[in-house]
Structures are given as structure tokens and as C-alpha cells.
Amino acid sequence: MPHALPSVSPEQVALEACGLLEVLDVLWGRGGDAPAPVPVSASQLRVLTVIEHWEGTNLRDLGEALGSTPPSVSRLCDRLEAAGLLQRSRGTANRREVELRLSPGGRRMLAQMRTRRSREIETVLAMIPPGHLTAVAEGLQAFRAAALTRIGFEGQDEDSATA
Fold first, then answer.
1. Are 83 and 40 in contact, with CB atoms under 8 Å apart?
2. What span, in angstroms and rounded, lies between the C-alpha atoms of 11 and 14?
3. H-helix or E-strand spanning residue 28
4. What is the CATH number of the domain that holds 35?
5. Would you tell me the crossing angle of helices 42-53 and 70-82 to the nearest 10 degrees?
6. What domain range is 55 assigned to?
7. pLDDT digits (tens, 9 = 90+) for 66-122
8. Does the residue 4 lie in any domain?
9. Strand partners, 101
10. Cys-Cys crosslink for 12: which of 8, 41, 96, 132, Cβ 3.0 to 4.6 Å?
């Protein structure tokens, strides 16, 4: 049975999370056994993830979610549209706005990327003693819920908020 950890501050946990994210970046960069069908940058991947959660969002709201400027977001979307991963259409509520949606190719690319990432993470999780996996899962669920609230995805169901 795992022993109780001493109380830690959010700052200490943030440092641990940052270290974990750096390692995850290396694992994800390995890409499993197959390259992505369409190579995308980390910034483009963030755009696709936000659009997946906010289907039909506009450039202004996308920029706010990403903390980026409208010209930068527009250029990212231009490249994603040219790669066949993103679709733009006239707004249904306001015809002057452009709505952003994932294309079928964008959805496939995200699914394939998540499968490769999941395999890498499962390999690492298999190395953790079973008694600790429950604590890891509970901590990740709590962190994910808080992060979804922070970026405005609160209330998303489990399947639609996977990233």
C-alpha cells in the first residue's frame, strides 16, 4: 500500500508537472512507430485541439484561447487549411465571421496522434507499481478537470475533451 505523501505546495507540484511535460514531449516526439500523416507543429496541434473542443469557433475566440495575436492565429489556420486539416465557413449567427471546424483529415490526424502517444504512455505506466496507478489516475483526473476549467472547456464530457 502506498504511503501518504507530505503536503506539497502548488509551486512544488508545478515544477514536477513541468518536468513531466518535458519528458512527455520527448516521448511524444518519438512518435511511436509511424510518422504523422501530415506533419504539424506544436502550435498547429494546439489550434486543432482548441477547434476540436470549440467546433465552430472564430479566429478572435481562438486567439484568446491560445493567448495569441489574430495575425498569428490566422497564419496558423491558413497552413492547417492548406494541409487539409481545417475547414473555414461563413458564420451561421453572423455571416461576417468565419467559423473554424476540423476537416475529416484533421480528425483522423488527431486520432492517430493520440493512439501513438497513448502507446508511449502505456509503456511507461506499465513500469509503475500497480498500487501507485490509482493515485496517478486520480491526480491526473483532478488536474485535467482544473485545466479544462482554466482554458474554458469546463463541462466537456470525457470523450470530447481528450487531448
1. yes
2. 5
3. helix 10-30
4. 1.10.10.10
5. 90
6. 10-151
7. 989 989 999 999 999 999 999 998 867 776 788 999 999 999 999 988 888 888 889
8. no
9. 87
10. 8
